[in-house]
Amino acid sequence: MDPRKEQQPHAGASPDHKHHDDASSSVSKESSTDKASPGQTHPVAGTHTPSHHEQVHSTSTHAHKTAGSQHHAAHTSAHHSSAEHAPVPLGHQDTSSSEAAHHTPAPSRPSLHGGASGTGSKPRRKLDWTAITLATLIIVVVIDIFLAFGIHTPALPPTAADQPLPVITATVLSPATCADCSGYADALDSATALRANLSTKTLTWPGAEADALVKKYGITKLPAIVLEGDLPSAVIGYHASGKAFVWDTPQPVYLLSNGSAVGRVKAILLTTVCDNCSDPMQTVLELQSMGITVASTDDIAADSAEGQALLSRYNVSSLPIIILSPDAWEYDFIAQNWQFAGTKESDGWLVQRRLLPPYVDVTTGATIGLVSATYINDTACADCYDVLVHRDILQRFGVFLVNETVLDATDSSAIALMLKYNVTAIPTVVVSAEAQKYEGLMGVWDQVGSVEADGSLVFRDPTAIQGAVYRNVINGVVISGVTS
């Protein structure tokens, strides 16, 4: 029989035949590695020239193995490829391949289906560490180049910090003859807060350079500040003037461009004899504490010729008062609040009209706002609140108490008052009609008491005092104001 026909593989080959092929292939692998020297790669197929029978046998074996291990052959190294595809039959081993046998992996176990691992099961894939290492190195190199040269990195737009700072000059125009002129620190702070290369210089006015700036920018009040250079669209507190920003709105005292001072207030104290009246000088001190420059005060008695002229000119009805010169109107606080204190006359002077009691009525000469208080207590009620709490409350509203009386509810005078004013709860207080002159007190009295026909004020709501204990006069029951 033709040996080529005997070795012809077919789909129905028996397991014995497969085992024979695997054994033959294994022996061939050992023969092909006999002559491999250490450090050398395994010889490729073709280093041994087989006989005609060997060629037929090799071809038959190769065709048979291809069906089960084609994928394995495609991924193995050159060593395994040459050993499997060029087998040498027994008795024809090439001694040049003996050393390579040590590198041949042991045959894998048969699969559970009875086939050899090379024909009946899929072989395990081996990692090619050389290729992995090479790929990793390439990636690292590419990243290094990317970082080093900024490949494909778009240029970032310049930030505000990268921009050169604008150059601005702040020129302060300071009057030479105004020791009490107001400062300009706040206005200069607005300029220094700008993000700019700011330089500051001070010019004394009058002076040639200062005069030129006053004329150029139409400055009317001094001190002033002029900003020039690379200016923003707006600066807080400044107004645009030509190509500059100008601050020329100082608080008094300041100078006009003609040299006259504005904001030096003259105060006239128009007084009369009144031991209990408030001192108008205290009002002057309060104005000064708010930054108003009172340059001079003039105390004029109302019964003097000059005083009588003032009473007539301004139609004064109450004393003592203060009268302020027109410069006071330059202060924002005065301009915004004087309506609550007095009037601005046609000549510009400010006349005080509303006074806190006590004060003197010019027409009658009587002192207004001297208050009497009668306290009605309940000594039989140990837990009832202290009736003198009312004194503290009245004084808190500025009430000037000149006469105070404390009565027990059993006193005949107290009984008479309780009957007269129909008092239903004690302790309480009855205050004279003069208390109505105190606007602050009258603003809240209707919430806690009554105003009687004779003008007296009667306290009627003890529950307004937190936690107060009191007695109901009608039924005699003591009521606790403490709530749980």
Model description:
By secondary structure, the chain is α+β, with helices and mostly antiparallel strands. The protein folds into four domains: 3-103, no CATH class; 164-256, 3-Layer(aba) Sandwich (Glutaredoxin), CATH 3.40.30; 279-361, no CATH class; 369-479, Glutaredoxin (3-Layer(aba) Sandwich), CATH 3.40.30. Helices cover 29% and strands 22% of the residues. It contains 13 helices and 25 strands. The chain has helices at 3-6, 15-31, 52-75, 78-85, 129-149, 185-192, 208-217, 280-289, 305-314, 332-337, 389-396, 412-420, 439-445; strands spanning 33-34, 167-175, 197-205, 221-222, 224-229, 239-241, 244-247, 254-256, 261-262, 265-271, 294-301, 318-319, 321-324, 342-344, 350-352, 359-361, 367-368, 370-377, 400-408, 425-426, 428-431, 449-451, 457-459, 470-472, 478-479. Strands 3-2-5-7-6 form a five-stranded mixed sheet, sandwiched between helices. A five-stranded mixed sheet has the order 11-10-13-15-14, sandwiched between helices. Strand 8 and strand 9 (261-262) form a beta hairpin. The chain is flat. 26% of the residues are buried. The model is unreliable at 1-120 (pLDDT under 50).
